[in-house]
């Protein structure tokens, strides 16, 4: 189907191709711009959301640290008052009844009508910090607890049952939260396994933050009990109340319970990937993929003084959910711009297409031999199409004139000259003439002259053959004749050797490929003042090429000239300068064999020159 559409609407219609290309470019550009704009806004929103998330985590840590500091201040105030600390130590060591008698004795022996006790002290603590839910005194030697609740108005004593906190104590302490009693889990909280357990699971726990400090007997320096201050986590909720982007926050203790979590916290989802989440880098937002939320920015922090783990999760889709309207607006604007641009393009292209079609129609007329059908063009048209039309009309006029007046007469003249030239040049006449001269030289006893004329005639016959390819044997024989002519000319001052591997003589090679190399040596390297001039021709076969090496012991080439010559051979424009030189040979090799054909030259001054030809095996 796509092939038919292409054949019908695009193959021979350049403006349809231009419209298609322009459409693709326009759509791609607008889509890229729209995506970039949206991604830029979304990236800024995500960065701002992540910064808000980090700020909330820092605020939660500061809140927890503040509660620790408030508990420390409470303890310091207790120790700063000898009466209060003395009452607390006596109470924890002797029990509630003994403490009441002790207080009555102290009051009766005192001259003051008012005496402070730790009941009023702890009651006042509730007013100094509204987040305090419970203040609990635990006795070590007597195993009981005394708890202040309801802003200090409700105080109650609890005894341990078989070494464990009583059910009444747990219910009163965690009256606003969710707690699993030991009796409900056979003595074990099934959702509070230790953090090192490979089957770690986490559960919603007691919604309290507890700060515990020891109380010492200043006389015996022994621990008589502890004081625990339970803080409500409602203050944490007020710090992260802006939850419109779907962020979730939680505080986790070492027992695997959440002492605080936002209402949208997903416990099951967290349990599946808790191990990976808790091993993230501390205090550094990281982007991970969660099963239900997809890509999520998670921050894990444990920098508070209580050692609690603060976890914040921000789903990426939640951070960008409010950008839906912006995304739709960008899409609609991009679509409208695309349609508008395409309509304008089609209108403009249709006008250009009509003008182009008129030019194409005129060209077809010329192709059919009709030169009298000019293109209709406006006089004030100065664009490229108008210029083409005017020049085309002028070309048709000139072509018509040339055909009628010049070409026909010149064609007849050229035919006559060709006939005359063919009549004058008769190769057989030249061969016969050279043969007559050779026989005359032999008859006069000049056998060397006869041999030279014979070799010259064969060379001439070989060179004027119109074949581009000959056998290696023919090329070698031609080189022998050339070398023999030279040897006879210089009276045996030149020797040569030819070695060809068996089976290569019939291999086809380019005509006049070796002879120009020998000619270069004879012109530039032959020493007439020496009798040991020597040139060697070797032909061998490698794995995928025929290699011909021509080596002489001539004058060699200066290094600078050699480098310039090698550079010329590397250049693509291989112009010849006079005769069939090395550049001419390499140029013809490239035409016949392609880039795999090679000609290399190496030379040493006063030692000689080596030229190597490489013919790909065909």
UniProtKB/TrEMBL annotation:
Protein localization: Cell membrane
Gene Ontology MF terms in the entry: ATP binding; phosphorelay sensor kinase activity
PROSITE patterns: HAMP
SMART domains per record: HAMP
TM stretches of this protein: 20-38
Annotated membrane topology: Multi-pass membrane protein
Protein name: Two-component system, sensor histidine kinase YesM
Originating organism: Paenibacillus aquistagni
């Amino acid at each position: 189907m796509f092939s038919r559409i292409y054949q019908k609407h695009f193959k021979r219609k350049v403006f349809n191709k231009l419209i298609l290309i322009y459409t693709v470019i326009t759509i791609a550009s607008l889509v890229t711009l729209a995506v970039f704009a949206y991604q830029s806004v979304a990236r800024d929103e995500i960065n701002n959301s992540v910064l808000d998330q980090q700020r909330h985590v820092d605020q939660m840590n500061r809140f927890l640290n503040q509660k620790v500091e408030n508990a420390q201040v409470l303890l310091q105030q207790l120790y700063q008052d000898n009466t209060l600390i003395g009452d607390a130590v006596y109470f924890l060591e002797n029990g509630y009844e003994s403490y009441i008698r002790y207080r009555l004795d102290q009051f009766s022996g005192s001259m003051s009508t008012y005496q402070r006790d730790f009941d009023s002290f702890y009651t006042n603590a509730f007013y100094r910090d509204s987040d305090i839910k419970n203040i609990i005194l635990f006795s070590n030697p007597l195993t009981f607890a005394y708890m202040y609740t309801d802003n200090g108005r409700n105080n109650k004593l609890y005894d341990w049952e078989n070494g464990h906190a009583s059910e009444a104590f747990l219910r009163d302490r965690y009256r606003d939260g969710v707690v699993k009693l030991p009796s409900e889990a056979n003595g074990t909280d099934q959702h509070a396994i230790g953090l090192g357990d490979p089957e770690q699971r986490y559960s919603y726990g007691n919604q309290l933050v507890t700060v515990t400090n020891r109380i010492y007997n200043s006389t015996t320096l022994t621990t008589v009990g502890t004081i625990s201050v339970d803080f409500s986590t409602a203050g944490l909720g007020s710090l992260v109340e802006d939850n419109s982007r779907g962020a979730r926050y939680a505080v986790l203790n070492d027992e695997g319970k959440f002492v605080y979590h936002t209402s949208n916290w997903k416990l099951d989802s967290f349990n599946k990937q808790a191990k990976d989440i808790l091993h993230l880098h501390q205090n550094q937002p990281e982007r991970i993929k969660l099963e239900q939320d997809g890509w999520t920015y998670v921050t894990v922090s444990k920098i508070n003084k209580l050692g609690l783990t603060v976890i914040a999760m921000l789903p990426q889709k939640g951070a960008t959910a409010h950008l839906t309207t912006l995304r739709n607006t960008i899409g609609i604007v991009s679509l409208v711009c695309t349609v508008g641009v395409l309509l304008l393009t089609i209108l403009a292209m249709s006008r250009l297409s009509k003008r182009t079609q008129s030019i194409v129609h005129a060209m077809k007329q010329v192709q059919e031999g009709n030169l009298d059908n000019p293109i209709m063009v406006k006089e004030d048209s100065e664009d490229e199409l108008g210029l083409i039309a005017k020049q085309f009309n002028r070309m048709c006029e000139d072509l018509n004139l040339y055909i009628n007046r010049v070409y026909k007469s010149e064609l007849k003249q050229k035919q006559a000259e060709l006939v005359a030239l063919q009549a004058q040049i008769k190769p057989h006449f030249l061969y016969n003439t050279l043969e007559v001269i050779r026989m005359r030289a032999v008859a006069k006893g000049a056998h060397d002259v006869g041999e030279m004329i014979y070799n010259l005639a064969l060379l001439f016959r070989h060179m004027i053959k119109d074949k581009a390819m000959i056998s290696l044997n023919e090329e070698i024989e031609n080189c022998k004749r050339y070398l023999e002519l030279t040897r006879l000319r210089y009276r045996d001052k030149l020797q040569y050797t030819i070695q060809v591997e068996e089976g290569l003589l019939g291999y086809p090679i380019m005509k006049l490929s070796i002879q120009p190399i020998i000619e270069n040596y004879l012109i530039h390297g032959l020493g007439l003042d020496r009798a040991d001039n020597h040139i060697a021709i070797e032909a061998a076969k490698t794995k995928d090429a025929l290699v011909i090496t021509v080596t002489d012991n001539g004058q060699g080439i200066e290094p600078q000239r050699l480098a310039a010559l090698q550079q010329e051979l590397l250049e693509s424009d291989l112009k010849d300068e006079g005769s069939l030189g090395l550049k001419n040979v390499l140029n013809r090799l490239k035409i016949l064999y392609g880039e795999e054909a090679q000609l290399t030259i190496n030379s040493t001054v006063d030692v000689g020159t080596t030229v190597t030809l490489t013919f790909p095996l065909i």
